[in-house]
């Protein structure tokens, strides 16, 4: 939900955002769609607010161990799978966290939702 910058208290940090785009293909190799993920860059966030920084992702040494094993054995087929719902949206608690969309994403959002125009800041960000 867009908000006017003047409604955000001066002592609140506005976090940057990033958008990741991935081309997805069908089993026959033909292009299917572009998948987008919009995420907040939490590096500027107060670390004391979130002491538990664990993430249920694979450990990199496990990935390298499997790749080393694949290189040593006679089987050389390694595959990647996409687990649907791996990024589960969890309910948040606490104060709202404002996020700033960069000018390119803001331009796309404004094209889709012209009513967002009143929320665009002087730096062309939403």
Describe this entry's structure for a reader.
The chain has 126 residues and is α+β, with helices and mostly antiparallel strands. The protein has one domain (5-100). The chain contains two helices and three strands; from the N terminus they run E-E-H-E-H. The protein has a three-stranded mixed sheet with strand order 2-1-3, with no helix packed on it. Strand 1 and strand 2 form a beta hairpin. It is flat and about 65 Å long. The N and C termini lie close together (10 Å). The mean pLDDT is 84.
Through-space gap between termini: 10 Å
Helical content band = 10-25%
The number of domains: 1
What is the H/E string?
EEHEH
What are the main properties of this structure?
126 residues, alpha+beta, 3-stranded mixed beta sheet, 2 helices, 18% helix, 18% strand, flat
Sequence-ordered SSE layout with sheet pairings:
Layout: E1 15-25, E2 31-40, H1 60-72, E3 99-100, H2 103-112
Parallel strand pairs: 1-3
Antiparallel strand pairs: 1-2
